[in-house]
Design a protein that fits this description.
The chain is built from one helix and seven strands. It is mostly beta strands and about 100 residues long. A hairpin with a 4-residue loop joins strand 3 and strand 4.
């Protein structure tokens, strides 16, 4: 199942690639200050845009895909995808890239 969660989210780290190397855990905070933890699965480029694929720690049946939009050289903003078609396309690309898993 693919799901979009929440509103625009920002990483508390400098960017999505600053992960706990052992566990690949990233914590995001929404605009209301609510925090959620995710397992980082992939960061991919698709049709000229960047996307992050995350697995919520509290729900291992849902994959969250967010567009990664640079704010500056150190921060990215993560935005839910508005198009179900685009969501399906990015998920298909994620599955293609990770067939061996």
């Amino acid at each position: 199942m693919i799901n979009q969660k929440g509103q625009k989210m920002m990483s508390e780290e400098n960017n999505v690639m600053d992960l706990d190397a052992e566990e690949n855990i990233i914590e995001l905070e929404d605009l209301d200050g609510n925090k959620a933890s995710f397992e980082f699965l992939d960061y991919l480029d698709y049709q000229g845009k960047s996307y992050v694929v995350l697995l919520p720690l509290d729900d291992d049946s849902t994959v969250v895909i967010l567009e990664a939009v640079p704010l500056d050289d150190e921060l990215e903003q993560y935005i839910p995808l508005e198009s179900d078609d685009l969501l399906q396309e990015v998920f298909a690309e994620f599955k293609r890239r990770n067939e061996e898993l």
